[in-house]
Amino acid sequence: MGSNFQFSSIGFFSKAPSKYNTESNPTLISNQTLSGNISQILQHRNNRIMFNPILVFLVFIVLVCPTSCRKHHVINFRWHNLYPESFIWDPQSEHFVLGSLRQRTLLSVSDAGVTSYLLSDTSLPPNSSFLGLALDRRHHRILAVVHRFSTPTTPAFNALASYHLSTFHQLFLTPLPPTPLHSTVVANDVAVDFSGNAYVTDSANDVIYKLNIEGQASILSKSQAFKFHPVDRNVPYHNCGLNGVVHNSKGYLLVIQSNTGKLFKVNDDDGTAREVILNRDLTAADGIAVRSDGVVVVVSQYKLYFIKSDDNWSEGVVFDETALEEERQASAVVVGANDRVYALYGHVDEGVMGNTEREEFSIVEVESENESKGENVWIFVLIGLGLVYFLFWRFQMRQLVQNMNKKTA
Predict the structure, then answer these.
(1) All domains of the chain, ordered by start, with CATH?
(2) What pLDDT score does 123 carry?
(3) SS3 of 244, please?
């Protein structure tokens, strides 16, 4: 027995009444019915195709928004009376390495705040501190500035120690000789070059030492440029001169001077120095680091400065400042994974006092607000372009469907 069918909108045959008898004329289908069915098929395909741009647009939003809206990385860790003055980032182990003002100890801290003991050097004089640290990955070493303050019963001690990066055995310990005009040295920070030479700042006398890979020390620079600017004797850091130091592969050091807020460029071969002209002083500057894009970051107890130069550091511009928590006494800065900038809250002023106890310290990510605003603008531009593309595509598909309907009418 014969049956009556029509072409459904999803491409299958379904049973339905018809005013035509297909048994007597099976090929008879009205043009109006056929055109309506074709329109429905095209519209359904259009709806299916439209899903792809929507999906792409949503995936784009999901991928972009976490990048622009992520929270700053904060690492809280615990170690009794550590009071770290400096730290470094080891990209291979993906851990931070920290020293201590009160202990002859180096330890590592993961990005989750898990602490691990690395070494305790009992060969150092009692009450010694690890101050500046430098990673010499090429020669598998950690370089650490060792300092002990003088007391009525113990003399001061200033040296550079080198430890093997895997075994943490001491490779050398070199005391830093005083200059003819100065009997007291205050070793502070250290940087290392590609050949393994180390550069140590003396904050008491504005002197830079150079040590070769074997640990033999000499004075690289005691330039008069370091003495050019007067020092305000009323500020608490007036006796801290040359401090944070980094090495550039082009053959020079960038060194900050805490008590004047000046930045110096020093030749790593002959020690000649000149001031880098900046648009503002780096008040109470302490640690220094460099991002992969050449931006220099300088930390003080009060702020983190972002500095750039277009002329190989004859001049520079402080293009942003980010306020820090003054009471937590930031003292060091490093550039970690993905060029993220981290400051160390080590409570160093409290640690120097010697009559306090503390368990918890922090490493916090710090961003330039000006750079973040620029990144957000580009993100919204990309989102806008994606939305324009989507609307244009949808308009084109509607035009196509309308044209097909007209041809089949």
Answers:
(1) 5-68+373-408 (no CATH), 73-366 (2.120.10.30)
(2) 96
(3) strand
